[in-house]
Amino acid sequence: MSLGTLTAPAGSRVASEPAPGRAVTWLAVRQIRRGALIVVALAAGMTALVVATYAQVMADPAAAGSLQALAGNPAIRTLFGAPIGLDTAGGFTVWRVGTVIAVLLGTWSILATTRITRGEEDAGRWDLLLSSRLPAPAVLLRHLIPVMAVAAATAAAITAVLLLAGTAPAGAVLHGAGTGLLGMFFAAVAALTAQVFPARAPATGTAVAVLGVGLLARMSGDGVTALGWLHWLSPFGLLSLTGPYVHNRVSPLLVLAVATALLTVLALAVARRRDVRDGLLHATAGRRPRTFLLAGVAPFAVRRVLRPLAGWMLGIGAYYLLIGLTAVSVTDFLRDNPAMAGEAAQAGFDGLGSIAGFAATLFAILAMPVGGFVTVRMTAFVAAESDRRLTLLASQPITRLQLLGAEITVTAAAAAVLVTGAALATWLGVTAIGGELAVTDALRGTWNVLPIVLLSLGAAVFAVGWAPRWTGLLGGLPTIGGFLLLVTAESIAAPDWSRDISPFAHLAPVPLAEASLADSAVMLVLATLLTVLGIGAYRRRDLLS
Amino acid sequence: MTNPALRAVDLTKHYGRLTALDTLNLDVVPGEVFGFLGPNGAGKSTTIRLLLGLARPTAGRAEVFGIDAADVARAHRHLAYVPADVALWPQLTGAEILHLQARTGPGADLPYRDELIERFDLDPSKPARTYSTGNRQKIALIAAFATRAPLLVLDEPTSGLDPLMEREFRTAVRHARDRGQTVFLSSHQLAEVEAVCDRVAILRAGRLADVSTISDLRGLHRAEVTVSYTGTAPDLNVIPGVETIEPAGEHRLRFTLTGEPGPALQALAAVEVTGLSMREPSLEEIFLDYYGTETAR
Could you tell me the superkingdom of the organism this chain comes from (chain A) (predicted)? Predict the structure, then answer.
């Protein structure tokens, strides 16, 4: 070969795309578009259903009465915020589905952001991307903008739905903008944690913890008058401060917008300073081997679950401890408002004002975080398979049944630990404040949700066998999908059969009532069937990669 | 009669309409070092996934020492595997991964493993996320060589190793053969295959093109012959097997020879030959002979 200067053939020219950034933006869009469509459709759909049927529901005295009772239920007030403006379709919709949609959008924004930034970087795919003409902060920004655009699209969809339903424009715009800003805020939080931590799991965990603390701060602000200022420190609190359709305050949203902008700038600044595949906090360079729990597939599954379990337990434990601590004051509040208590009794929710009733309602929603936990664990198992971490184990004398079976058993056991922990935290909180709740009642209440959790696990295992890419969606369907369905069905007085599809419709309010063994048995049989079908398919299919 | 270490019988795999592997029939004899060659996309990794039971064949079957490859709990007791692209649990250190592999595998020789760690110059105290491609490969190689499994299946195991480490790899393969272990080596490094393999299989577009010892393969392929002569040049134009005759200087001729050398030698005997040299083809030339026309397309 000649070492002489190569001259380019006449007429040839190196093609150079004028806008390399656009390609990166499209890459990010491609990675989130499916989830984005689901989030926007859910947010718009739930809002539309509730607002469109408001007049019809209020015209029916029985339905209106049970909704009033629902509004008077202290547990529901803790979850959804103080009901204000229930006399308008807009105000009612904001109260009923506003928080649920905000949590949904916030969680999705976090998961999407850390997945397409830190997750892709972890997998080594950003090495190539960052060798392009774009610097790291630009690449980060071009991944963050599509996620924020989804939040903006959600905001636009909610506002449009509320306007089309004929609610007051100021309230519609304020509520839509607030929800969208909240989604952007959590995308910015996740972008920052993805720069600080050198791995995806702690980045996601920390951002979700910020979301959880935000929710807790709003709940504390709602429950304890002296702590009302906490609203200003929580994105959820800021949203409730705007009071759409009633107060229509804009200043809380400005605070949220400024906070989002600051976090974004901070994330970009950190991205400029740090090394690729490293974070602001450095990964340890080396350590002595810890061979604890590495003796087999099952012990290794236990080892892998310990850290996530500790994180989820901390979050769930804190939430239920707070519920325990506030139980006495909110139930007292209800007792002091005979009108509300009367309405509750009218609707057949006699004991809901008692601590046991309060706890029973809140224990039911425990199925969601724990169902989310089992789904996340099975999704992580599929991820280990698809990025080939599982290959070395799968080429050992270990059957597929042992591989998946260990994961299922350990995940189910971890779920049992979570519900037990939630019961103990609630009991501790109630007891500390001088209330009455037997520890066995608390345990009965939280263990009552295990069949729904196992239904989620079964659905996730089914997906692992038949459609691994859909594990997250199928796994979340019974718990998160079921809850959204119930909330929507209850708010629009939908026909009973549609409500009955949700497993939550079959959950007895334990410890207020006895557990329904028949319903639990049906769920357990269904969960077992799904699990067996999933394992059967997993044993026969090709490993991913 | 003993079972072959690996056996493929009409092994076929379709991915949708794509035929990744088409009725492969192959026996690997216990104790041999078997090379598995083919260009990218020829179906080498698919074959290995089928032999390991990681993927299920569309038709045919695979066996490991007479055990159905799908029965991984039994079949994998006889083998250790190094994948082409090693992915490790990022939070575990090298030592922890080696420990996990030893505890879940078919049994490991721990003193030999420590020796291998030394020889491959690996720092096992680092978390796997900090390892380079080569270091990840070293982990899998050390774990595999340290087992006493009678069969080692290695899928492009040296693509990330430097020349020094590649030498260690060849030494480890020879030690494995000396202990009676069978080695199934899929590789692009033809020099490496030439140095360590007893037999090779050549795969082309999902089909087996040839299985042979390397010396037999050479016999089947073009040797390059150079002759020096005085007087008139030999007439080789009609001799079977002789091609591309070209002058190589004054009173020198170069040509390629395929198959039996007899007729060519007789033709040479007719003139006064003063010198004769023959060069056997390298594996690379053989390989290019098989695929050259394809890559040139």
Answer: Bacteria
Within 8 A of A286 by CB-CB distance, chain B residues are 93, 123, 125-127
CATH code for the part of the protein at B222-280: 3.30.70
pLDDT at B295: 44
Query: Which value does ipTM take for this structure?
Result: 0.84
Of A125, A150, A109, the residue nearest A263 (C-alpha): A109
Question: Chain A partners of B52 at a C-beta cutoff of 8 Å?
Answer: 394-395
Name the CATH superfamily, with its identifier, for domain B6-217. P-loop containing nucleotide triphosphate hydrolases (3.40.50.300)
Report phi then psi at B14, rounded to 5: -110, 140
For A190, the domain range is 20-281
- Identify the band that residue B188 occupies on the pLDDT scale cut at 50, 70 and 90: confident
Q: Which amino acid is at B193?
A: V
Residue A366 backbone dihedrals phi, psi, to 5 degrees: -60, -25
Between chains, do B125 and A290 touch, taking CB under 8 Å as contact? no
Phi/psi of residue A45, nearest 5 degrees: -65, -45
Any idea what the Cα angle at residue B179 is, between residues B177 and B184, rounded to 5°? 35
The secondary structure of residue A451, as a DSSP letter, is H
Pairing assessment for the beta strands B151-155 and B18-28 based on DSSP bridges: unpaired
Does any domain span residue A221?
yes
A251 touches chain B (CB under 8 A): no
Asked whether residue A411 is assigned to any structural domain, the reply reads no
Q: Which of A4-13, A358-367, A429-438, B55-64 has the lowest mean pLDDT?
A: A4-13
Min Cα–Cα distance to chain A from B92, Å: 9
Contact state of B54 with A394 under an 8 Å Cβ cutoff:
yes
Looking at the complex, report in whole angstroms how far the Cα of residue A192 sits from the nearest Cα belonging to chain B.
21
Report the mean per-residue pLDDT for chain A: 87
pLDDT of residue A348: 47
**pLDDT category, A284, cuts 50, 70, 90?**
confident
